[in-house]
Amino acid sequence: MLILASLITLAMAVVSLFVGVSDVSLASLFAGGMDSRAVEVLFISRIPRTMALMLAGGSMAIAGLVMQMIVRNRFVEPSTTGTMESAGLGFLLVTLFAPGWPLIAKMAVSALFALGGTALFLRILRAVPLRDVLLVPLIGIMLAGVIGAVTYFVAYRANLVASLLAWEMGDFSGVLRGRYELLWIGLVSAMLAYIVADRMTLAGMGKDFATNLGINHRAVVSLGLSIVAVVSAVVLVTVGMIPFLGLIVPNVVSLMVGDNMRRSVPWVAVGGAGIVLACDITGRLIRFPYEIPISVVMGVVGSVVFLYLLLRTQKRVAA
Amino acid sequence: MTSLFRTSSLAAVLIAGTMALAPAAFAQDKVITHPQGETTISGVPAKVLTQDWAVYDDLVALGVPVAGVPSSNAPTYLGAIAADAEQIGSLFEPDFEAIAASESDVYFVAARSASAFETAKDILPTVDLSVNNGSIIDGLKANMVTLGTIFGLEDKAAELNAALDAKVAEVKAAAEGKGNALVIVTNASKLGVYGPDSRVSWVYNEAGMASALDSVKDGDHGGDAVSFEFLLEVNPDWVFVVDRDAGTGENAGAAAALLDNELFNQTTAAKEGQIVYLDSQASYISMHGYQGVMLLLDQVLAGLNG
User: Fold this and answer.
1) Choosing a second label site near B43 at 20 to 30 A (CA), which of A32, A59, A205, B162?
2) From residue B220, how far is each of A317, B67, B193, B194, B195 by CA, in Å?
3) Closest by alpha carbon to B2, among B17, B10, B16?
């Protein structure tokens, strides 16, 4: 099954290599030799974009899964917990006060803010006695709203609202060779999640349970938070926000293969990459040769799936 | 007796004076026709409000003092905004309370604030000076004539319009045989293109540069997102860049850094160094202000001749 899913994702990656404004096809690749425009475009633009899509999709989906394990709630992901917004605030501030810093330093600041924002979310959750399944993401969305408002206020005062809107909107149209490689950091952090998957599965069963089994609950949660923060910051800084991704992929996977993280991480990675590829290809084709940002396509697809998941839960609760 | 005579003669003089003045005052009632109807303005307005930077720009060019301005996004090319000018809300949302309280004589809306007309017209004489993106220069000239009529500055307006015509003719001459052009907007790390119906349409329509987009399927070109591959394929001879990040000064050179890549560097525009950076606030915020358009035309001219 996993092999089949991987093959579908791989097929979409191949399609992604051949969708774009320039003429890149098997014929043009072989006709022109190694110096032809087709080969050049393939290496400068198509392969980097396809790689960026898979890296961002896979690592964002894993970040969502980790988040859901730590919070023990199916409806959280970096954009419903204030993580993304915190990363955005960090990036905005560092852009304002240290515009000359290299991108990786800005990303680090952004990741620190993401970490702080997520920790704040967990701290607030601890103060809420009733852990209703829908209350948790609601609190997260409210926190995200507050942090987002602060960010917009700062951007407004600095006349940066247009820029803020542009780089928060997930969009792969600017990806070229040399402009996406930070995403590998995201993949490496997401791989960490696979290494500690067993411990994280146990941590997901609750603090007391995990401690009884000899798990350092605190350490596992901190590691999980760091993974989420780094992935969020890396993706935000390179391509912007991709809404719903971290939410729908782990949920669909959980319906299919259950909650053992050791089993679900590869599924989530493959599924995340696949859905991001599909949405980006769609966005490239709808108004060809112009593009529709992936955050728009993903927003439409994601909200439908999210609604389905929500209604499904309600039905189960009612039954 | 003498005192009575004196009083009545004074009264007679006053009456005569009033009667002499009255017809003149009536004669100065002007009916201004604009996109949203007709507005009657009596006399020369003394206290002037505007919700639009382009209109502010026009008024400054004509030498008309402005009492109320938008509260945000003041284009830096306009220099310091009159210190005593009242802030009457953002470009999109007028502060109607402040507008009503100011007891002004005339209020100008345009483009982003055009929808304020319906509410504002019941408060004070309001004129909509929106300009159709498809014919920005003609629209601007019409606005200058309208403003000249309202403020009795017809000669000044005609003079400024003549200077504008001359500048457009100069750009047109410079653009002759220079090939096609593409106006792009850069924002953060994203690219958009502006076509023949956009807010910088004058580059194509009036300056006479052919749109490099003619070879591409037509869209409405309102700053559509495109990839670098798109630029490579369209391969414009000239590129005019509106850098939306440049307005802050923090990211100076951001657009140049964005465009310096392996794909864009293969286009004719990049190879020949035919890239002109336009004042982003004049092209993006005020769009059809007199001084802004003159500034942009100068920048295009300098680029074409440079």
Assistant:
1) B162
2) 49, 37, 10, 9, 7
3) B10
Query: Which chain B residue's Cα is nearest to A155?
Result: B248
Residue with tokens 């220069």: B137
Q: How far apart are the C-alpha atoms of B13 and B25, rounded to whole Å? A: 18
- At B43-99, the pLDDT tens digits run 899 999 999 999 999 999 999 999 999 988 888 888 888 778 899 998 888 999 999
pTM: 0.84
- Asked if B241 and B255 count as a contact pair (C-beta separation under 8 A), the reply is yes
In angstroms, the CA B202 to CA B288 distance is: 10
Rg over CA atoms, chain A:
20
Interface check B249 vs A, CB under 8 A: no
Strand, helix or coil for residue A4: helix
Is A163 in CB contact (< 8 Å) with chain B?
Answer: yes
Residues of chain B contacting A287 with CB distance shorter than 8 Å: 219, 224
- Give ipTM to 2 decimals: 0.85
Q: What residues are paired with B210 via a beta bridge?
A: B180
User: Which residue blocks in A174-216 are alpha helix, DSSP H?
Assistant: 183-195, 197-203, 207-212
